[in-house]
Amino acid sequence: MRLEEEILKRITPDGEHRRFVDRVVSNLMKKVEKEISRLNLPLEARLVGSVAKDTYLPNPDIDIFVMFPPSVNRRELETIGLDIGRRVLGGEERYAEHPYIHGNYEGLDVDLVPCYKIENPSNIKSAVDRTPFHTEFIKKNLADHQKPEVRLLKQFMKGTGVYGAEAKIQGFSGYLVELLILRYGDFLSTVKSASEWKRGETLWLERRGDIKFNDPLIFYDPVDLTRNVASPVSIDSFSRFIYACSSYLREKDERFFFPRKREDWKIKKIREYFKKRETAVVIVRFDRPNIVDDDLYPQIRKTEESVANLLKSHDFIVIDRASRVDRHVLIAFELQSSKLPIAKRHEGPPMWIDHSKRFLEKWKGGKGLSEPFIDQGKLVVIAKREYTDAAELLRERIKTASLGKDFKGMGFDVVSGKTVFRKDYRKIMTDLLDKRMPWEI
Amino acid sequence: MRLEEEILKRITPDGEHRRFVDRVVSNLMKKVEKEISRLNLPLEARLVGSVAKDTYLPNPDIDIFVMFPPSVNRRELETIGLDIGRRVLGGEERYAEHPYIHGNYEGLDVDLVPCYKIENPSNIKSAVDRTPFHTEFIKKNLADHQKPEVRLLKQFMKGTGVYGAEAKIQGFSGYLVELLILRYGDFLSTVKSASEWKRGETLWLERRGDIKFNDPLIFYDPVDLTRNVASPVSIDSFSRFIYACSSYLREKDERFFFPRKREDWKIKKIREYFKKRETAVVIVRFDRPNIVDDDLYPQIRKTEESVANLLKSHDFIVIDRASRVDRHVLIAFELQSSKLPIAKRHEGPPMWIDHSKRFLEKWKGGKGLSEPFIDQGKLVVIAKREYTDAAELLRERIKTASLGKDFKGMGFDVVSGKTVFRKDYRKIMTDLLDKRMPWEI
User: Fold this and answer.
1) Is B214 on the interface with A (CB under 8 A)?
2) Which CATH architecture does the domain made up of B267-339+388-440 adopt?
3) B residues 47-106 near A, CB within 8 Å?
4) In this structure, which CATH number among 1.10.1410.30, 3.40.50.300, 1.20.1540.10, 3.40.1190.20 belongs to the domain A144-256?
5) Residue among B307, B281, B294 nearest B410 (CA)
6) Which of A35, A215, A438, B96 has minimal Cβ neighbours within 10 Å of its Cβ?
7) What separation in angstroms does the CA of A20 have from each of A51, A53, A150, B164?
8) Taking CB atoms and an 8 Å cut-off, how many pairs form between chains A and B?
9) Residue A192: beta bridge partners?
10) pLDDT digits over B225-272, tens only?
């Protein structure tokens, strides 16, 4: 336990930090309660999340929920909730299932979220209504000696890049980490078990739910057995966590918790790599849609997938791809070749299908690069390819791909050839070429 | 019927030619009978084939069968049969199901074939024993006015390249042509019906056989209902005949019967074509195995198929291919490109499959062109390709492909790059590039 003890020292909030966090929470709660007292409504302020559960890593987010009686209609809840938040925090409006206020208080990130106070979590009116139940469940069930185990697992997931249920990461939420420790007992047992997880791994605490889920990982929520706590975990995060766990067991290293910084590759090195590989790169650069990350990342994934399909449907072979957001949204495709010959084999129907007459009419008399001929009973012609250059294809046809909805109206540029070897593209090129896992850097 | 009448004039043997053929047959029969009379066996000479049936085109082959009683054993039949043939014809020994003598007599090709004289064609001891029954059947059933129709259809099939059941053509036998005229009545009705044939078209005269065949065309032999007379017809000959028939109905032309000569393309034109297409060609040149055509052509097809699969399995895209026999056996492949980049996407198992550990061991630590990474839950690595040059692949690995058995020990050469633009390869390059049907030339 040598290494893990060292890590724990670095990630457990010390007495001074605890007192700081407690003071911040206490001040915020007082302010919220003061705002509540000015209203003629039975509202309640409730500290939830990792601070409430004492499973936080240093500099945690503070989550305070303002709980409304179910009799208040949704519109009123939102108006009053946001108003309280603004008065306490200033901050900015954000949107999950309904709007809330995000701000900063003495250097800590704070979310002030209105929700309904309900009796039974199976009657929730919005997803956030479940959170207070999760907090209560963990406070009641997680033993004090398990809290360091939660912290270790969170830091391990952060370091290996799978921590966070948000769309950007598609990984493990804090609550899921706590449930894993409850399920397996401690950090190392979790890592050992996870190293042997199979796709569709199904976990629960006392009772298993009845619903079948098709996710890579299933953990029935003990607070609401109809829900899979692990539903945000993507197949890639799931796989990467298995990979990280089995690598860690082979050789423990602090880099699993605190990976080294990945340096951007120099242009020269990038150019040399592509010369060595003999492949080509095309980058699509979109203007960045003005939407929150949880909306943006799914749209980037959809756009990346559709553009890859557009390339494939025109016979370009996509070897690898990467996306990245900076001032623009960049999507890069490594191709076997960005050029194809004009000649293409085009197979038609067999002679005994009615459609064969139309095929012959279309292609006879020098309209292709050959006359139609018969091969294995099928009509075939050597036809001219519509696009022989990948960049040209993307420039002219990207609008016909099913892009993320906010990408449809966006300006874009297609970068190819020598232009890709520019400082602006160092980061995405590094993503494409440097395939080391975070702990291998 | 204007065009068909003109064609008939050209293909019907005139009085003088008939007398010539009759004299040749009569002389040969006398010679055979004289040889028979010197033996103490009840043998019988029988004229079979198109001359016997009076459905021949000018300069026919003469087929004379020497019929043995079934009591003679096979070895004796062969020895005696060949001996008679040699005495009458000189000629050379050929081999179908058993050996026979092929020679030339007064300018006509002659086959002298020993067979068994049996009572019932379902008891045949060798395939050729059926031939006398076919001849008798046609002589009895084909009306005189249908003989010109048979001649027209034969010539049409010759002109369009589908006449002949031998392995080189994989087309329609003379007997099948006669059965088609019996089935449909005349030439034009056959052409009209055939233009609408579907794959698996099933025909018969009075009775249909019980056996199901999986051939493109099925015609139950009226003399032996367990046999499909059309079994030699390949899917390509079947398709081409449908194509020819429907084209002929659209515009009748003597070129369907007497196609113009296909000129070999000039090297300059071939070079220009490939420049225009932006594709590459690789030719495999084998020494010619010393075997008869009926053994050679199936082996060429098998070799062509296996080499194409070898190319495909190494990611080369085969656009088209052609084979040809001259002093060598030449097999040409038109490729999208004869070069591939060294980098290749290599997909491994998902992380949760046991085999993933071996994949990681194999590829970690710079053994590929990238470290292993995860995509859609699968392990992936950018690996080095084994062969980046199609010609090199063929040179080094062609022996591992499942070649025709007589190609396995043969010397071979792989021709690629500028070397393909040489006089020796004009014919096969023309096969590859000139895809006009014979009647379109």
Assistant:
1) no
2) 2-Layer Sandwich (3.30)
3) none
4) 1.10.1410.30
5) B307
6) B96
7) 12, 16, 21, 97
8) 125
9) none
10) 999 999 999 999 999 999 999 999 999 999 999 999 999 999 999 999
